[in-house]
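tool_log.txt
---
The assistant was asked to compare two proteins side by side. It first ran the structure predictor on the initial sequence, then on the second. Raw inputs and outputs are pasted verbatim so the downstream comparison step can read them without reformatting.
(1)
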Amino acid sequence: MKKLVVASKNKGKLIELTRLLDMPEIELVCLDDFSSAPDVEETAKSYRGNAKLKLLSALAHTDLPCFADDSGLEVDALEGAPGIYSARFSGKIANDGKNNYKLMTELSGYTDPAQRKARFRAVIAFAEPSQNQPDAKIHYFEGVSEGHIALEARGKGGFGYDPLFVPEGYTKCMAELEPAEKDKISHRGRACAKLKEFLKEHWLS
């Protein structure tokens, strides 16, 4: 069985990504298993840039194949915000509740779903170790889920902006969907599907 490192210390993310990839031939581990791995400050100006920062740090401290992801919510009426700042939209002491409240406040003047168009976007970066880590061959995989922001929060599942995001073609918010249904249409699920295809063709063969 091959070992693959998720460039995150979040056990919840590890569980989610293990479910999304669904590859019994691969053992996914997270950075919690490597005491020397530091937290990485996400200072890049794009999802791809932040994913690369986390990936290169993980490669340097594990010497194993790794992948990292970065994602966010983009709202058209807010000119693409919160974007890469989605997790800290409401400030340094941000949490899901504060972020959702700020989003609803800023969209209070927009009542038509057409005015509240939005999308979740995720970028995954994968690479194997090389002698010169900054020169590691990085492969990127992107997933997008289009939709709009609801007028009120609904549902108890998911996390982040899921109670406010209605996927295109649905009347339910992400937080109201069953996990298997959400996985098929989520931004991270779509990015993981592309990563899975790549791993099967180029890494496991």
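(2)
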Amino acid sequence: SWVQGLTDLQTLYQMNAFPENTGELTELEAVALFQEKKAAMLLDGSWRVGSIADQENVLLVPFPARADGPRQNSDMIGGFSMGFYITEKAWNDQAKRKAAVDFVNTMTANDSILEFNSSGSASPISARTVEGSNPLLQSISTVNGNATAYIGAVQDTIELSVRNTLFEKMSDIASGTLSIEAVLNDFVELNNKIQ
């Protein structure tokens, strides 16, 4: 599936779906292209939503699944970087538990999420549509409400230095300069050494 996914990336690159200088763009520059409406889409995590300036004309849409693949368009990728957590120490302390739970409930309430989003400081993840919310928030609510499965992000299971070896080769993979199979074989071998 990784070979097929990277082959799809090559196909998109050959169709000129990316800017000419894609290989040299930083993450901030890529986001700026989207914010300035010089790029039609941005593939990013939920943390990016709060910083999107135009929330009236931007929508969240599920990343399409391959017709021959094992997942559905309604499957969501999520990791441990999402959400609020209560420590075991606070949970086990009856004096602190209620305060911790109340804090999480307050921070994840729809009104709080809307406030965070309006300030650009957080992503508006909500399971229900909030009346009067902007089109971006409504689209997020719809996608979240239609989620059929949550799948862990593969990158969260791979050590950062190993991931970076693959990420650093993406432009060469997309342009066809490097063999997908050779890069993935090296990647798997390096990952096996670390584990």
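---
observation on (2): The longest strand covers residues 75-78. The mean pLDDT is 84.
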